[in-house]
């Protein structure tokens, strides 16, 4: 068993994971954005859950509103951007299947663990 206490600090932080999946948290300040029209995970699905705040996700060019309790499946290869459109911090937790990152700065290539 693995366990972690998620810390919602500014930016992107990896949490607990194994060879099959990985958790991460992201906190965006008011007006903050992560990703763009080229951002994609070539080897992992991403389940993004909004813990608090409001924002929008642009997935394959389609805009999806985000608010506390929203869960979005961003499938491997989908282009995506997450934007804080609210007045408070946008706090999210994501699960990647399989793992998408070696560390906070390095994405794993498709098919690698």
CATH-defined topology: Jelly Rolls
How confident is the prediction overall: mean pLDDT? 94
User: For the largest beta sheet, what order do the strands appear in spatially?
Assistant: 1-2-9-4-7
Total beta strand runs: 11
The tally of domains stands at 1
User: What sequence of helices (H) and strands (E) makes up the elements?
Assistant: EEEEEEEEEEE
Strand content: over 45%
CATH C-level label:
Mainly Beta
- The assigned CATH architecture is Sandwich
Number of helices: 0
The portion of residues assigned to helices is: under 10%
Measured on Cα atoms, how large is the radius of gyration?
13 Å
The CATH superfamily is identified as Jelly Rolls
In brief:
With 113 residues, the chain is an all-beta fold.
Give an overview of the whole structure.
The structure is a single chain. This protein is mainly β and 113 residues long. The chain has one domain: Jelly Rolls (Sandwich). The protein contains no helices and eleven strands. Strands 1-2-9-4-7 form a five-stranded antiparallel beta sheet, with no helix packed on it. The chain has a four-stranded antiparallel beta sheet with strand order 3-8-5-6, with no helix packed on it.
What labels describe this entry?
five-stranded antiparallel beta sheet, four-stranded antiparallel beta sheet, mainly beta, 113 residues, 11 strands
List the helices and strands and how they pair.
Blueprint: E1 11-17, E2 22-28, E3 33-36, E4 45-52, E5 54-59, E6 62-67, E7 71-74, E8 80-84, E9 90-97, E10 101-103, E11 106-107
Antiparallel strand pairs: 1-2, 2-9, 3-8, 4-7, 4-9, 5-6, 5-8, 10-11
């Amino acid at each position: 068993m693995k366990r972690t206490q998620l810390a919602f600090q500014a930016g992107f932080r990896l949490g607990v994971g194994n060879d099959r999946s990985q958790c991460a948290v992201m906190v965006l300040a008011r007006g903050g954005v992560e990703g763009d029209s080229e951002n994609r995970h070539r080897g992992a699905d991403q389940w993004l859950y909004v813990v608090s705040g409001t924002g929008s996700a642009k997935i394959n060019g389609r805009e999806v509103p985000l608010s506390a309790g929203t869960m979005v499946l961003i499938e491997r290869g989908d282009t995506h951007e997450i934007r804080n459109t609210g007045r408070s911090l946008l706090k999210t937790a994501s699960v990647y299947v399989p793992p998408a990152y070696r560390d906070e700065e390095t994405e794993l290539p498709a098919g690698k663990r």
